[in-house]
Amino acid sequence: MQIYLPIAGMSVDVFLLIGIGGITGILAGMFGIGGGFLMTPFLMFIGVPPAVAVSSSTNQIIASSFSGVIAHSKRGNVDFQMGSFLTLGGIIGSLIGIQLFVWLKSIGQIDLVISLTYVFLLGTIGSIMAFESVRIIFHNRKGRVLPTKARRRWFMSNSLPFIVHFKQSNIEVSALLPISIGCVVGILVSIMGVGGGFFTIPALIYLLGMPTSLVIGTSLFQIVFVTSVTTFLYAYRTHTVDIVLSFLSLTTSVVGAQLGTRAGIKLPAEYLRMFLAFIILAIVGYLAYNLIITPDNIFLVTALRKL
Amino acid sequence: MKRLSLIAFILGCWYGSAVGLCVASPIIADLSEHSILIDSKFAGETLLMFGAKHAPGNMVLVVRGPDQDYAVLRKEKRFGIWMNGKQVIFKSIPSYYMVSYTDDLHAISEPDLLDDLNIGVNHLSLQTDKVLNPSDRLAYTAALYQYLDSHELLQQYAGGNFGFIDESLFRIPISFPDRINRGVYTAELYLFDQGVLVSSQTIPLEVNRHGIEAFIYDFAYQFPASYGILAVAIALGFGWLASIIFQRK
After folding, report:
1. Which residues have CB under 8 Å from A133's CB, separation 6+?
2. Which pLDDT belongs to residue A276?
3. Chain A neighbors of B77, CB-CB under 8 A
4. Of A184, A290, B60, B101, which has the fewest CB atoms closer than 10 Å, so is most exposed?
5. pLDDT value for B20
6. Residue A140 bridge partners (DSSP)
7. How many CB pairs under 8 A join A and B?
8. What pLDDT does A36 receive?
9. Cβ–Cβ of B239/A9 closer than 8 Å?
10. ipTM greater than cut 0.95
């Protein structure tokens, strides 16, 4: 069944949107990632103009992340204290990111920068996470139990000023860390139009030493705020948020987030990290491939803003 | 005698017009619809142009949409990776262009005349924001045309899809894809006889949005802040709604 999207200026199959919405929702609930990395390329693939794809999927991410956060918080899996610091950093990061975005656009290489950032940043994160989680699983399977050391965290996290005791996660770290993490995520979100969960989750696990069970919900908490602010800015400044598009995909994504949360909780933490790591590495592989292999079409044509 | 000549004159005209000699214009045509309304179910539309041809010659139909600017970017491989190279902006290209002609266009008329009238894909005037060397111009133009063609925004019927019912009556289907711009389109019918333009007729066609789609679009542009807040609110609302529903389960 086709429906016409007013801002995108084209008609799409309703079921495609519903389907992709559901999948991104499940990913959000299960892994604490926004799903924008899947939604945005998918929308572009079916012909939605890139700017509309980014803005509208950011809009939809609000819904699934919010649904997921509520589901996680009911189970006591959100560290709101940590989330607040992350969000504060995220807002600062968004403001910086927007300026950066404008500058990169003016030199015309924004796509390249986005792809390279993804490849190097996520490649590193994904590899570390894959290696670490697979190692644990491997050892557990062999019956060996790794010595339970205190969850690793970055060695400097205690030496920085403004130490805060985060009750729920039961860690004491400098508040500057979550703020900086949030800031980096805010920049990434403004430039790439994604929720940033990819960076937040490994950072919370490895830099701060938060338990995996709390990380997902807390990450979603930050994503809700950052994507809300970003969606508003996109709508206000570029008029590219297609409410019909977002609405159709978010109906199933909010349900997916609920289901994903339940499924994710049942999984042991290291398996969750492993799956997430593999998803990240798959995306990195896809992007790296596209950077090196000759594209199908050397030319890219876009219609410029009209009536 | 006078009455006889009057009768003869009337009979002559009647007979004359039947063979296109007297009063009838060489071509007369109309569109099946004069407006296309884009509503939520819109997925493209096909109209019909129909009419009668009373004089010898070749007909050409051109349907033109409102102007649109396009950016064409070429990717280049540098340092082993593909990055964005030169971008050329094509200005004031018809956002929809359909041309239908029965014979080879150059058999129909002179290239100069075709250029003046912008009849035919190779006779469109393309303004670019920068000066291009011939090979670049060719490559970028070809890329633009390929894009338009793939989205059904550029259609050329070189065999002509004029469906002649008899010697003079014809009908031509005009198909529009879903992504057409709104604005005033023109359907131009030309009659060429031995290279000379004998007659032409232009029929306007209005494409507009209608209903809730139009309202949403206008709202997004006229009240962007409220639209933004609404978009966020709807997303949050549904997220919350889902958690309520699942709580009961």
Report:
1. A270, A271, A273, A274, A277
2. 85
3. 294
4. A290
5. 47
6. none
7. 189
8. 79
9. no
10. no
A140: contact with B, CB 8 A cutoff: no
Give strand ranges (E) for B24-181. 27-31, 35-38, 45-53, 58-64, 67-78, 81-94, 97-101, 127-128, 154-157, 163-164, 169-176
As averages over each run of 10 residues, the pLDDT of chain A (307 residues) reads: 91 92 88 80 85 88 90 88 90 84 76 79 85 84 62 61 75 82 84 75 85 88 88 87 93 91 86 86 84 84 71
**B216 interfaces chain A, CB cutoff of 8 Å:** yes
Containing H/E element for B186? Answer: strand B183-193
Contact of A4 with B39, CB cutoff 8 Å? yes
CA distances from B90 to B87, B122, B145, B184 (A): 10, 15, 11, 20
Question: What is the pLDDT at residue B18?
Answer: 55
The Cα–Cα gap between B247 and B140 comes to 57
Beta-carbon count within 10 A of B66 CB: 18
CB of A39 less than 8 A from some CB of B: no
Distance CA A242, CA A9 (A): 9
The residues that bridge with B87 in the sheet, in sequence order, are: B73
- What pLDDT shows up at residue A111? 74
CB-count burial class (<10 Å; 0-12, 13-18, 19+) for B225: exposed
- Give the tokens for residue B234: 């709807």
Residues 139-158 of B with CB under 8 A from A: 139-140, 143-144, 146-147
Q: What angle do CA B217, B222, B225 make, to 5 degrees?
A: 100
Cα angle A208, A36, A290 (rounded to 5 degrees) comes to: 100
Residues in chain A: 307
- Closest listed residue to residue A206, CA positions, set A231, A235, A171: A171
Residues of chain A found within 8 Å of residue B178, distances taken between Cβ atoms: 2, 4, 10-11
Q: Decide if B241 and A291 are in contact by the 8 Å CB cutoff.
A: no
Contact at CB, A307 and B66, closer than 8 angstroms: yes
Sheet with B81-94: list strands edge to edge.
Answer: A299-303, B67-78, B81-94, B127-128
Q: Which residues on chain B are in Cβ contact (under 8 Å) with A11?
A: 42-44, 178
Mutate to test the interface with A, among B179, B184, B207, B219 (most CBs of A within 10 A): B179
- What CA–CA distance (Å, rounded) separates B121 from A226? 47
- Is the Cβ pair A6, B216 closer than 8 Å? yes
Q: Does A107 touch chain B (CB under 8 A)?
A: no
Burial class for A113, CB neighbours closer than 10 Å (0-12, 13-18, 19+): middle
Say yes or no to pLDDT of B79 above 90: no
Q: What is the DSSP track for B127-139? A: EESS---HHHHHH
pLDDT of B13 strictly over 70: no
